[in-house]
Amino acid sequence: MRHKTFFAWLVLAAGLLDLTGCREEPGLRDFQNGVRALEKKRYARSIEYFQQSAQARKNPVENAKACNFIGIAQYELGNKDKAVQAFNAGRQLNPAAMEPVYNLAVVLHENSDTAQATLLFEQAATLDPRDTRALEFLASVFRRSKRLDDARRVLNEALKRAPHSPRVLTAMALLEMQVNNMDKAGAYLNQALESNAGYVPAIYNLAVLNQAWLNNREQALAYYKAALRRPCESPYLENARDAVKKLSAASAPPVSNTPPVAAKTAGRPAPPPIVPPKPPEPIKAEPLSSEKTVAAFADIMKNAKALAVSGRKDAALTFFLQAASDAERNNQPARQEEALREALNWCPDEARAHFAMGQFMQNRKQNEPALKHYKQAVALSNTWYEAHMALASVAIETDEFDTALISLQQASQTQPGNPDALWQLARFYDKQVNRPEDAAKAYTQFKQRFPQDPRADSADQRLAALSAYLPKPPAVSSSKPSAKPADGRGANASPSFLRKWRKSPSTSSSNRPPSRTD
User: I want to staple 239 with a disulfide (CB 3.0 to 4.6 A). Which of 172, 174, 252, 367 is the partner?
Assistant: First the structure.
């Protein structure tokens, strides 16, 4: 899936504010030059300007903006570690700034650090109660991990903030399509077009909805053509062209409606090659003194409790977890535990609170309480992949093999494209419970589904050792030709379409395009 970059928009939005009403102050001209260089994609030069600006200016709020822009430039240069450093420096210089938190979350999510990215998106959404981008990105993350209740929670909050946003309304439609609620999906898409008649994702998804579920080819064709008439660059327009040429071809998944993001993704056209000089180190914020860390912790906890008292439990939990994360980073385990216990006290029915406490206990080798909290987390959110994997690891340590087996199976079903759960399941059968037949089946599935995974060679070795437990192929008579499947597709036809897409009971699947929601 391709995302539009949010970096360029962010540069203009924040940069132009500083370019208006210019007054000569130390470092201001360097900041302005840095913004211009960043807009022109002269990333290395922009970093130099922003660093010179930060050295001359003593205002932490302004220097937080410089750090954020340095993070953007470092990311565009491919230096993700330095981008993370710069975004973290921006957060530390101005804890109230949303942009470095949001951008850091996107980079961490791209690096597969989903748990930390999710926490940061929640924090970014709290820092700016009018903005919806962090909530939209969170919804996209939750939909992919099948945490549909969480996806609905954050999208409902986004709709409260922007009830007429065509982007948020289309995201709600995609969620309804994922649970096969097509009436609501159509209603949300029509609301999106009432707000913006030219919004291509809504037009395109209405075409898919009419083609795939309503079996209304004429209406679908009209929407596809309407999408093609709009001056919009989208990877899905080629699918629309194909659908117009041959409407019965299954080649048009709906547009994923992730909000503008800060990071590049696969499929985005690469910029022209740049051979800049070695970029300088990003700005590093001065470490806080012990007195300041205590004050900052107390302030976050105070805000968290005030939010909890007012009934905003989701926002309160985000602040409690932020306090715990900051305490962990400052090597203050007592304060980390205090924040986590307050989170559980105020938000006992939140899976995130139990998961965070489980991680804390597991890291301190306290497996029994960790197991208790992980169990509660998966009970509250049964499709949370990371929680199931964490529960399985602790359950194995404590010899609760039934719990481990159930969690590994559930994790593998929740994210079938993730090889880790299936690999751990095969190892569990093989090493922990001595079930060689099940181990052989799991290793075989692993090889078939993930042949490029580095662990495929180890799976081969274990299958060789377990060869006696592999199922024997059925005998085939040479006197009769082999029969084709009843559907006439041939013996090599892939059943992946039937596994991946749910069939609507009211329509035929013969002319249905795949309808991904990611």
Answer: 252
Alpha helices per DSSP H over 347-418? 351-363, 367-380, 385-397, 401-414
Q: What are phi and psi of 173, to 5 degrees?
A: -65, -40
User: What tokens does 55 get?
Assistant: 């050295």
Tell me what the pLDDT averaged over the chain comes to. 76
pTM greater than the 0.90 cutoff = no
The residue among 279 and 188 whose pLDDT is bigger is 188
What CA–CA distance (Å, rounded) separates 437 from 391?
24
Q: What is the pLDDT of residues 352-410, one digit of tens each?
A: 999 999 999 999 999 999 999 999 999 998 888 889 999 999 999 999 999 999 999 99
Contact 22, 33 (CB under 8 A): no
**Which tokens is 337 given?**
């535990």
**Maximal CA-CA distance, the chain:** 94
Q: Which amino acid is at 252?
A: A
CB 431 within 8 A of CB 447: no
Q: DSSP letters along 287-341, please?
A: PPPHHHHHHHHHHHHHHHHHHHHTT-HHHHHHHHHHHHHHHHHTT-HHHHHHHHH
Taking only the tens place, the pLDDT of each residue in 174-196 is 888 888 888 888 889 988 888 88
Distance CA 445, CA 456 (A): 10
The continuous run of DSSP H or E covering 46 comes out as helix 43-56
Distance CA 354, CA 373 (A): 5
